[in-house]
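Backbone description:
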Amino acid sequence: MTMVSETQVSEDQPSAKSTREYWDARYATSRPEASGTFTHSSAANTWFYRAKKKRILELSHRCHISLKGLRVLDAACGSGEFVDFFVREGAEYVLGLDFSPVAINACRERFSTARKCHFSCLDLSKEIPIDIIEAFDLVCCFEAIYLLPSESDFRLGLRNLCRALRPGGYLLISDHYPSTTKRRHEDLVHHSRSLYKEVLDESRVREIGTYLQTTVFNSSILPSRFQSYVETNLPWSLYVLDRLLLYLRQSAIPPADRFYYLIAQKEL
């Protein structure tokens, strides 16, 4: 297996390779950062995933959504961190989709004995297969939909996620949701809240709410030297601080770096 260093693969500056080659190279590392973020160490990414899963459970309970017995679509599933989460929470069936063959092959190997899990390569900016339409109770896309940089691809990608929902089903997406569209680089664009609303309304999917994802992860909150020490030696402390600040409704992350969970429901 080819190992790729952080200096070779960064989130903010994909190489001249195609987007798919870039993500194939990331997933080939088999490191937590591949599906997570290079902002943090491997240990901190592990705790970040714990924080995200805890937050999803918390918000599911707040919105009266039980994960047990659901048919779940995890779009842009990456290495399958959330596939495992949904299985453990009692999902009846989980379909993981990703446009990276490397990610899909890794998931198939990881969940080779899990009968309720299936995986397939799919580009959200293309029309989805008919057997996926209105087939799922919960459709998720975590930190990925902004990888559809053009407005037309984004519209089709979000519309595809909505089409996969059964009437009454729930949509769960994480993004920055800026008031105006923000471009980080040519392959990463955070589309505006108004564009989200337009597509959701067209798809008969009604927003329940947007909720802060994390208060300390996805950004460095300490001077570089101390951030590195904490992530290496005390990564669990970031999780504890995150839980405390969420309870206090405070955040150590600048507003421009904050991620939110959008929860919406398709009309019956």
Observations:
- Strands lie at 71-75, 93-98, 117-121, 136-142, 165-175, 182-185, 188-190, 205-212, 260-266.
- The chain has one domain: 19-266.
